[in-house]
Amino acid sequence: MTIENGHTVSIKKIDAISDEYVLQGFIDAHIHIESSFLIPSNFAHLIVQHGTVATISDPHEIANVNGIDGINFMINNSKKTEFKIFFGTPSCVPALSSQFETSGYVLNAQDVDKLMELNDIYYLSEVMDFKGVINKDTDIINKINSALTRNKVVDGHAPGLSPHSILKYVSSGISTDHECSTIEDARYKLSLGMKIIIREGSAAKNFESLHPLISECPGKYCNSLMFCFDDAHPNDILHGHINSIVARAIKYGHDFFDVLKITCINPVLHYKIPVGYIPLISEIPINNFKCSQKSILDFKFSTKNKMLPIIVCINNQIIENYYS
């Protein structure tokens, strides 16, 4: 593999045997960055160390408080890092009607339509108002159509619906769901053409129930699955992100390359995100997972006889002290 200026310019097969792989980075197919209590640029620094190089992100929480200004802040802040964050327009702000929730903003169909015109918006985020979809409520249907008419996909949120209701929900043009908690529910939605995003995050964990789909009827569902965290608390992602889901899938005996397809390629194809992938001559984020061991001496630096502020941990408290 020849790389020039961050781009792969050639890939050539050789006969030499190697025990190393060059992998694309992982993609989280559905996440709310706000759940990490971090701004996008800082969130990126935290999860890139786990091999994640891109996220499909729903800025619902900040929109619920600060509306369009909040969404624009997330987009603009994300541009301060090379990490790839692809945002959708929240479809349900507030999540529930004013009868049940007091929000800082109401995002109506006209607002959504304007946001969907932006090049920085890649899809319509999870449609939580499944009752509105099933009953063909004008506002939510217009929001869905504002995405579909621009050839942008629509994410779903459909827990616990009856088969008849799911059929109505899918027929509106919604193409994913990350809320499946049983394999039967996931199989039915897959049979209707939906993509299932297997979630294993801080708040909800469905991997154990759904992972058999990866190898069911060899490869039957492989093209229609993705992985996500959904809500990612900082104390959890300190210990792992999508890499932890990948490791579990491989530990359970699922095909290595099927798992990589699910987490590296399927989100790119479904959301039409411009990141490139290995078969293409394109910009490709690459991880080398063979890292050398580091010792404390590797981080030694010269103060040049100046007092420098150093962050240290004393009695479980983060303290800034000056050292020379």
Automatic annotation (TrEMBL):
Coiled coil: none annotated. Keywords: Hydrolase. The lineage of its organism: Bacteria, Pseudomonadati, Spirochaetota, Spirochaetia, Spirochaetales. Residues 22-278 form the Amidohydrolase-related domain. Pfam families: Amidohydro_1 (PF01979). One of its GO terms (molecular function) is adenine deaminase activity. This is Adenine deaminase (Adenase). The keyword Hydrolase applies. It comes from Borreliella valaisiana VS116.
